[in-house]
UniProtKB/TrEMBL annotation:
InterPro entries: 7tm6_olfct_rcpt (IPR004117). It comes from Acanthoscelides obtectus (Bean weevil). The keyword Membrane applies. It is a multi-pass membrane protein. Keywords: Cell membrane, Membrane, Olfaction, Receptor, Sensory transduction, Transducer, Transmembrane, Transmembrane helix. One of its GO terms (molecular function) is odorant binding. GO terms for biological process: signal transduction. This is Uncharacterized protein. GO terms for cellular component: plasma membrane.
Amino acid sequence: MMIDSYIKRLNNTFSPSMLIFHVIVLLSMCMEMYRASTQLDLLACLRPMLYSAFGLFQFFICYCAYSQALINEANDVSINIYLSEWHESPKYAKSIMMMIGMAQREIKITAGGIANIDFKTGLDIENTQENHKQYKRKPFYGMLLQAN
């Protein structure tokens, strides 16, 4: 199937470089969040937090959105084939049923074959980052209370 071969070519071409890119971004975001968590001044925390927020925004817009759109289009192929009134041509019914079956396979776009690139992954990363912020915020507020 054409979409399946396209996704395989896409994964084979960009998957290793996307993995390296995501590891670099992940490490830099971790360092920036650490820098933000060790600063007592709110303005000093602002730069690392903005860097992390824009990095996450870039991941959503530049990678997750387009990957999810391609995955959605690939998942809609079987529905579109079914809605094409294939049952009116019994001569092609067997071939069309095979195409529907092939189109129902799960499509994944990955970074290095390790991490899926889609909205679910992006939201999982956002959730993890938010939990980390909540965890780091507790000691910060404790220090503020002790200072008063």
